[in-house]
Amino acid sequence: MGSQSVSDRLGELHFPEITITVGPDVVDVAASDASLAGQGASDLRHCIDRSNCPDSSLQAASNGNGNGNVESGEVDAFEANAISGLNIALALGGGSFAEFGDALRQLVTIDGSPARQASVERFEIDEAEGSVGSAARVLVSFTLRIQYPGVNDANHHTVSIARSESGLDLADRIVVAPAGGWRIKEDSIAPAGLQAHYNDGRISGSQRELEGPEPLTFELEKKAGLSGWGWFLLISLLLLVVGAVLYYLNKRRRKV
């Protein structure tokens, strides 16, 4: 088996895109379709099937039958067990998971407050079925959720997202998008140079373009909805249209 553990290789995955979706009390970090190939892919298949898995931490997530062939049911069980194990580790803390959990909760602050809860919502492995000896690519996707249950119910929130100059090669593209019913105020984006990356309601760019020593900050604003009178007028209009259609049909029926 390779000198690197499978866990190490999973930690070095490169994603086509990472999307950070920001709401007033929930932030989702989603990354899809990172490719793991070669020895790393074969090692992961060994772990899913529970046949000579070289990584004890991943073997614990396996319910495989060890027959040397990865089946779809084994992949499903591995995904579910991995999510459960990761969330238990995040909740209990300790060791590297304590550091990871703290970093995740500090990644995005809303109105100056860090997240109180962090969890793994999705962990998916695609194209893993087949012989454990196969070095063909495996695709890995995940969604992390961080929550802010104490955030005040308001129409405006100040969001701060930590950036870095670490040079880590995580993704080809990073997207920061508002949750449904919310919008990012373009003129509030700071540093001001990042306003050039605002398009179609989202902030996006390559990792290099969006890296920097200062956090990305902006105002999250609730989209204006219809007022009470607005809904009344809309319903009235619909009733008028329905009434006109019924009148027209009734008139035609009389002619016939």
What does this structure look like?
The radius of gyration is 25 Å and the shape is globular. The chain has seven helices and 13 strands. The strands form three sheets. It has a seven-stranded mixed β-sheet. A four-stranded antiparallel β-sheet has the order 4-8-13-10. A two-stranded antiparallel sheet has the order 3-6. The chain is of the alpha+beta class and 256 residues long. The model has no long low-confidence stretch (mean pLDDT 86). The protein starts with 5 loop residues before the first helix and ends with a helix. The chain has helices at residues 6-11, 39-49, 56-59, 72-92, 95-107, 207-210, 228-255; strands spanning 15-22, 26-36, 69-70, 108-110, 117-126, 130-131, 138-147, 156-161, 171-178, 182-184, 198-199, 202-205, 216-222. It has two domains: 6-222, no CATH class; 227-256.
Radius of gyration: 25 Å
Summarize the main sheet: 7 strands, mixed
N-to-C SSE series? HEEHHEHHEEEEEEEEEHEH
What count of helical segments does DSSP give?
A: 7
Approximately how much helix is present in the residues?
Answer: 25-40%
Span from first to last CA? Answer: 84 Å
Net shape:
globular
Point out poorly predicted stretches.
Answer: none
**Into which percentage range does the β-strand content fall?**
25-35%
Beta-strand segment tally: 13
| Mean pLDDT figure | 86
